[in-house]
Amino acid sequence: MTNLLLATTENTDNQNSQYTSLNDPEIASVVAHINEEHLDELLGFLSAFTSLSTAESDLVDAQITDIYAEGIAIQTCPKGVENQSTDAQNTSLHNQTFFIAFAAPISQLDDLQAQYILLKQRADKKLGKKTIKLTKQVFDVQSSYRASKNMLRLELSMPSLNSDTPLNNTAQLSNAKGAKNSTSVPTNEAGYAYLFDLEHNAMTDALMNDSTDGYKAGDYKTNGSDKENIRPARPHCYYTLRKAWQADDEIRAWIDVFLHGDTPGGNWAAALQAGETVVTKREFPEKVEHLRDGQAVLIVDETSIPTAARLLELWNNPTPPLVICVTQDAGDQSYFDTVKMRSGLDCETESRKDDHFTVLPIVTNQPNSGAELATLIDRELGDYLTNNPLQIDKVWGALEANTAKALRPLLKDRLDLSRTDVVVKVYWRHD
After folding, report:
1. Most exposed of 21, 67, 129, 322 (fewest Cβ within 10 Å)?
2. Residue 253 backbone phi and psi in degrees, to 5
């Protein structure tokens, strides 16, 4: 197997001569995306695959400088102005370039995702972290209804539980013969996302329609152009597991989908009927570990409200958070009305009067995207902190891509926080 670690501090010219350039015009945008959205993963690669310890990687920022056929080059640099005066033993941590090798070389940029996921899985395993899973799961649709004005809740189910399987953080599944399935559904985890296969339902519907027109589904044949017409504009969509729980002999789950206009995901969810199946192809745990202590602020729009709701129900921090909830329609602000936050204290004899969260609503009356929205969020937060003095220690948010990009530096400047304490994710992109 290819060695996963090749660390070097050689100059850039020498390093470039050792590895194969892909010469793809899209590499620059891919590098920019990873550097903006996945700093924590790059720091994890450094901790897992280089001589830098986790403690040392906390002292630096990191960015990919290039992607080669054989792997990625990651450069470290001082983390903030305050670290530039570090003593001599720490200066060696800064301005180095490390090469992290793929498990197998890639021949084109399209192969990058698979190798990057492998790197992440190996790094997370070595560091004892939850990681992405490439796992197929099948859910049955039980019902659907509105959780708020424009939020459709899908209630799904999974096969029966093995009676002697303990329910801890995940529920192991068994088939009718009692054999354990390799998959699991997290019943006690916040921000767990599934990649849903929208194409599965489009193809199934086409087969069923053909069958009802007098043809046997088994005899269904179609050419390539017909398949292209059947496929949805977007074959996959991520949706957060809003909640999962054991109910009698099965696992029930909620998936909440924001319906906004003519979108592939919204159309898929709205068309689902009881008795149909939905298929997931990938599972991804959200990064919320930094919220376990300190005063936090959560910043969400309609796409990330379900993640925040489950996070609040499983809140593991004695200090309740401030929630900034941005919606296009005032009718969706009611989503949090039925959400009950778990107290951060485990002591049953000690009561709390502040085991609740505060929602700062922002209603825009327009699609929630762009740098102007970032400015509005920052201004509303500033006004709130002026009237309600809080020392914000941690931020978690998930918004549209351009909004997230513009908001991160505004929050870091306003709150004087490090990049790792301001986690603002991209949950969707405005076309």
Report:
1. 21
2. -145, 150
Q: Which two tokens stand for residue 109?
A: 């940029």
From the number of C-beta atoms within 10 Å of its C-beta (0-12, 13-18, 19+), residue 177 rates as: exposed
Residue 171 identity: A
116-120, 386-390, 427-431: which has the minimum mean pLDDT? 427-431
> Is the CB of residue 51 less than 8 Å from the CB of residue 7?
yes
Output the pTM of the full model: 0.80
Alpha-carbon gap, residue 395 to 52, rounded angstroms: 26
Which sign, positive or negative, has the C-alpha torsion 316, 322, 326, 330? positive
H/E element, 305: helix 305-313
pLDDT (tens digit, 9 = 90+) per residue, 306-363? 999 999 999 999 999 999 999 999 999 999 999 998 765 444 434 444 558 999 999 9
What count of residues does the chain have? 431
Q: How many CA atoms lie within 13 A of 266 on its CB side?
A: 11
User: Which sign does the torsion angle of CA 266, 267, 270, 275 carry?
Assistant: negative
Q: Which helix (H) or strand (E) holds 40?
A: helix 39-49
Tokens of 398: 């998930």
